[in-house]
Amino acid sequence: MRFSGFLSMLSYRSEQTPDAPALRYEQNGRMCVCTFSKLYSLVTSRANVLRKDPKHTLGVLANGSFDCVIEIFASVLAGRRTVLLSENAADEVLKEQVKEAELDALFGDSELKKELSPFLSETAEGGEGKLLFFTSGTTSRAKAVVTSDASLMASAYNGGALLPLDPSDTLLCMLPLDHVFGFVCGLLWGLSCGACVALGRGARHYGDDCIFFRPTALSAVPALLGFLLKYRALNPELRIILIGAGGCPEPILRAAKTTDARVCFGYGLTETSSGVALSLGFGDPYAMTVCPDDTVTIAPDGEVLITAPTCMMEGYWRRPEDTAEVLSDGVLHTGDLGYLDEEGKLHLTGRKKEILVLSDGTKLFLPEYEQALSNALGGEPLCVLLINDQPILVLEGELRDPAPIWEKIRPVLDERPRNQQIRAIEFYEKPLPRTASGKIMRWAIQREREGL
After folding, report:
1. Element housing 334 (H / E)
2. Contacts of 248 (CB under 8 A, 6+ apart)
C-alpha cells in the first residue's frame, strides 16, 4: 500500500491492525513486542514532546534500538531536520558531520553526545521534517543527502510492490539505520506491508539473531550475508533474502541459493531513497526489474540514468553545485554502467564514477587513494580497480618485478582498513586511456580487462 509519509503509515496500521505486532526487540534479556497501536501512540506522544522543544535539528546516533526507531519517527513528525549518524564512525568523521548538518541536538550514546556537544550549532534553522543520510564515501567526500518521509515511504512502496510481505512475515533488521538501504529495506519495507520488524541486537549477535527472532525475510549487504552463510546462522523459516548496497560476489550468491529462501538482488542509491530495481528470485539474479515509480534509461556511454519523481532526493545539503552535477531536470546521472535487456530488465556492468563500492556497502574515493599511491611511486601513472570485490593496482608500463612496488606503497596501505588495501598489482602495457580532460577512464580499463 502507498503511504504519503510516516504518520499516514503509522495511523493506518494502528486503525486497521491495532493489535498486530509491529516491532520485536530484546530488552533485559527477554523478547518484547510492540503492536502497531502502541507504536503509533509512542511516536505521536514523543513528537508532541519534541514540538515543545526549541531545537530544530536532531542528529540520531542510530544504533537500531527500539528507542532509536521511536525517536527517528517522532523527530520527523515534530518537523525537525533529522540526520542519521553512525555511532561506529570515527570521532573526526562524526564531528565534521555534526558541523556540516548544522545540528543543535543529539540522541543516542551518552558518551558520544558529550564528546560531540561542543560542535552543535547555536543558530540552526527549521528542519521541515527532512531526513539526511550521509553517503558512505570517505571523510572528504561524504555528502548529506536530503530526503523526506514521503520519498522514503515511496521507496518502501516500490520494494513492496515487487517483493511483497504480509502480516504473517517477520523482517529481521540487522543493518545500520544510518544507511538508506538499512532504513528502507530493513525497517520501512516491513512496516509498510504490515509485517513485523525484528530489531537486530547488533554485531555481537550476528551469529544468533536469526535463530532468536526466526525471521521469514532478511535484508543484508553481501559481507553480512557471507558471514551468515559461512557460520550457518540462517534459520529454516527464512523465505526471502534481499541483497543490496553493493555488488554481490558470485560465490556468496551461489551459496545463498542453496538455502530454501528466495534470493533477490537490489540496486539503489541514497539519492533515490534506496531501491531502483530488484531481481525477483527467478532466473538470472542480476537481471533486475525496475521499480514501478522509476524510469531507467541508458546514456550513449552506458551510464545508468534514473527518473524517480516520488523517490528522488531534494539535493545534497548545502551543496547546490554538487547536486547540479548529478541531477538535471529530474534525471539522476548515477555514474554506474549498465544496459537494459530485451525484457527491459536492468543489468549493471561496472562504475563510471571515481568510487569503488565494496561488498559491505562502504565506498572508496579513488582520487585520494590513487594520488597517495602515485606519490609513493614518484608520480607513476596508475589506477585502482575492483576485481572480485578486491582493490587491485594497475600500473602503466611493461611487466616488472612487483616487490619494490609493494615496499614503496606499504606505508599508504597500512593507513587503510584491511578491506581497502591493494591485493594485487597488474601492468597495463600501453598508455592508460584518458578523457579529453586527462582523467583516467577506469571503467574502460575494467571493461577491456574483462573482454567487454
Report:
1. strand 331-340
2. 222, 225, 265, 359
Q: What backbone torsions phi and psi does residue 137 show, to the nearest 5 degrees?
A: -80, -175
C-alpha cell at 364: 572508496
CA distance 26 to 31: 5
User: CA-CA distances (angstroms) from residue 246 to 62, 181, 350, 376?
Assistant: 21, 10, 11, 30
- Average pLDDT (170-196) is 97
Strands (E), 91-233: 105-107, 131-134, 144-147, 170-173, 196-199, 217-220
Cα→Cα distances 210→229, 233, 235, 442, Å? 11, 7, 6, 40
CB atoms within 10 A of CB 246: 20
| Closest CA relative to residue 219, chosen from 169, 174, 279 | 174
Which stretch of 171-175, 315-319, 364-368 has the lowest confidence by average pLDDT? Answer: 364-368
The predicted model scores a pTM of 0.82
Give the cell for residue 40: 503509533
| pLDDT tens by residue, 45-82 | 999 999 999 999 999 999 999 999 999 999 999 999 99
Q: Which residue has the cell 573526526?
A: 92
Q: What is the DSSP string of 365-391?
A: EHHHHHHHHHHHTTS--EEEEEETTEE
Q: Is the dihedral of CA 383, 336, 243, 190 positive or negative?
A: positive
State the CB neighbour count (10 A cutoff) for residue 437. 5
Tell me the one-letter amino acid at 187. L
CA angle 89, 91, 92 (to 5 degrees): 105
Contact 219, 140 (CB under 8 A): no
